[in-house]
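HOLO CASE FILE
Compound: beta-D-fucopyranose
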Amino acid sequence: MLKRSDFPADFVFGVATAAYQIEGSSFGGAGASHWDTFAATPGNVADGTDGSVACDHYHRWQEDLDLIRDGNFDAYRFSTSWARVMPDGVMLNPEGLDFYDRLVDGMLARGLDPVLTLYHWDLPSDLAVQGGWTNRDIAARFADYARAVMARLGDRVAMTATLNEPWCIAWLSHFLGIHAPGLRDIRAAAHAMHHTLLAHTTAMQALRADGHGNLGIVLNFETAHPATRSAVDMAAAARQDAIYNRWFLEALTGAGYPAPAMEGLAPHLPMGWQDDMAAIAAPIDWIGINHYTRALYRATAGAWPAGETVTGPLPKTQIGWEIRPEGLYEFLLRIKAQAPGVPVYVTENGMAWDDRVDGGRVDDRDRQDYIRDHMAAAHRAIDAGVDLRGFFQWSLLDNYEWSQGYGPRFGIVHVDYDTQKRTPKGSYLMLKDALSR
Ligand code: FCB
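Model generated. Tokens follow.
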């Protein structure tokens, strides 16, 4: 296992979470988000659960921050819930902002850098019923929300991301129907693919005008390999790569939308989208990469994008995700080539396992290997000249894994959902040791 001293002196080691997955959305005067309503609709979430209590972090945040400090981490990537801060998407809930104010002070008191994500998916339901990400108005609404949060926290956060994973916000949620709002509609998806970027830049520029800095965005990347060397499978993988890995990064860096994605999406983009592209390419201060896995694609008959995944041969996590650390190295180099000069952070990486507590311990050897191999891949990328500044583990705690419910356990700390007891896993102890000063 690499140690802190193997990395550059100011390299940031952190852990990440997201509001809806840990806080408990029923507490503190939060409004309903589209995740509450999506989860309340039968068939959407594997175990029928929701985030109303989750890890009860809303009440246990001090204990959770202690765990981060005691694990020798430098930074905590957390998100603010839009529906907590603005229950109807517009009006402020003072209790919500007070909570994040205390949380940020609690990080500083423990010597942790607060790394804020403004949107990790809890869209207020009142905005969702107005079309949410399919409605262009979302950009202005999101900028208002971002300004309100940063007016309160901006003097103390170290870094701020506008959006977490626009591919999930747009494609997974409006084309594949797997996340809230659960649509399967190419026109809604194309609109969301554009409006996420528009909202990002609208909020970023409003924040800059208010004097805030160190603003970035978190993108997810997943290797899309062809299932065979046939031309049709290779084309299917290339379409997937364009929709998932190229769309956002290339638009943000002024290269426009990639051709293999535009084949299908161009007719469905909002009118006048071209006029937004210069603003979408406004400079960003950093890019976050979330990376977990790769997938194999084969061509299918039928409607564009005419591809589907097939099960690959690599070792897999609890939820079937193939483990391939080289993918992280490859994407870090790809980001360097596409966005030269922009500092990069690994903002999420980790794996789900069906962890059990045994005699007060959780022996998660597979996760320890996963972490070791991915940190080594990140280190190789630094050696290859990538300006990588930090690495955040997903996740501090086992938590609500969206449409998969509470089954998958991604934490380096185990959570017993009946008692809310936290038990640091072997991976936490391994990292604590590697990161000691
Ligand atoms: C990412 C999400 C995060 C978590 C991990 C496993 O896509 O950002 O909230 O669900 O996957």
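CASE NOTES: The pocket of beta-D-fucopyranose is lined by residues 18, 21, 164-165, 168, 220, 290, 348, 394, 401-402, 410 (CB under 6 Å). The longest helix spans residues 186-209.
CLOSED: yes
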